[in-house]
Structures are given as C-alpha cells and as structure tokens.
Amino acid sequence: MLIRRHDEPLSDAEWRAFLADHDFGELIAPGAGRDLPIVVPTHFIYDGDKTVLLHLARPNPVWGALDERPRALLSVFGAYTFIPGHWNQDEYGVPTSYYAAVQLACDVEIVDEPAGIAAILERQLAHFQPEGKHAPVEPGDNPYGKLLGSIRGIRLSVTDVRAKFKFGANRTVEHREAVAAKLAERDRPLDVEARTNLVRRLGRR
After folding, report:
1. What pTM was computed for the model?
2. Quick check: 90 and 124 in contact, CB under 8 A?
3. pLDDT tens digits along 5-27
4. How far is CA 198 from the centre of its chain?
5. Which region, left, alpha or beta, applies to residue 114 given φ > 0 means left and ψ of -120 to 50 means alpha?
C-alpha cells in the first residue's frame, strides 16, 4: 500500500479509533510456495493494542496456509468514496478516491481447545451482541458446547501496522472544505463517513 506523507495517520490514536469502529476485514494468509494467498472476509475483535481474536469454520481453506506459515495480514478499509474530477478543477480535473485503510501484519496462533474457543466466542458476543440474550458459551453437553468442534479460533499478535487516511490532505483547506460541501450535497451512504474523516483532518497538517 502506497502511503504518502500527507496520507499518514495523524497519530496511532487515529488508526486505533478506526479499528474500534470497523470490525470486519479480510484475513490474508500467504502460506508457503502458493500461487495465490487465501483471503477470508471475517468479523474480528481488536483489543486496541496488540491482539486480534476471531474464529472460522473448520472446512475453511485458510488452515492449510496458516499451517504452512503462521503469518497473516488483516486488511480493513472504510470511508471510501469517489471524488469526481470536476470537483477538483473542471472537466480536465483528475478524479480520485478517498478512503481509510489499516493493515495489521500478525503472527498467528490457532486455538483448538474447546475452552479457548469458547472464550473467544464469549468476547466476540460481548462486542457484537452487547444486549446479551444468549446462553453462556461453554464446553460440555449443551447446544453451544456441541458446536465448538465445528470451528477453530485464531489469536493474531500484531507485529506491524500500516495505515492510510487519504482525504485530500495534499490540497488547500479551502479546496477540502469545498469537497466536503460537495460530499454533503451528494450524500451517498459512504459520503457521510468520508466527509467526517475529511473534516476531522482539516487544518491538522
């Protein structure tokens, strides 16, 4: 991922906040000597520091790649939208994309113990289903316990982070304010998130 100076995060807090709000991404496992990596769309939970937790079904093809090489990249993106060329200048203006992206390079630990898988599921449910309304997830002779063998857990230990917030920071404040107004006028679903990022970063560099 190309990251120009003006697209760098303002601080670690910026990309950490992005991951707090974006909990779905692509787990990319290169394996060893493969023609193509295995790419798995998945929900995950991030602890805000060095650990990501998730689970996947046992038939998932990612396990072979992770056995070959216990390394993976978690790629997360959002706030993406198209900026027409005429917003930047006139009919000869160059169009561009605005977006935020965070990539976490990770060491991978596979969790197969029923108690470990249950602990991951409990933490995911606490995050994604905070209203509760579910039975405890625990090993044993219960409906959830009988299903634990059909999945495997993954604990990712973050070793490197690359983050990009591409929202026109190489342009003047006046230009970005004009684009923000255009995004508000167009008002597509992702325009709202892109505009929020653009406005938040105004004048910061």
Report:
1. 0.94
2. no
3. 999 999 999 999 999 999 999 99
4. 19
5. alpha
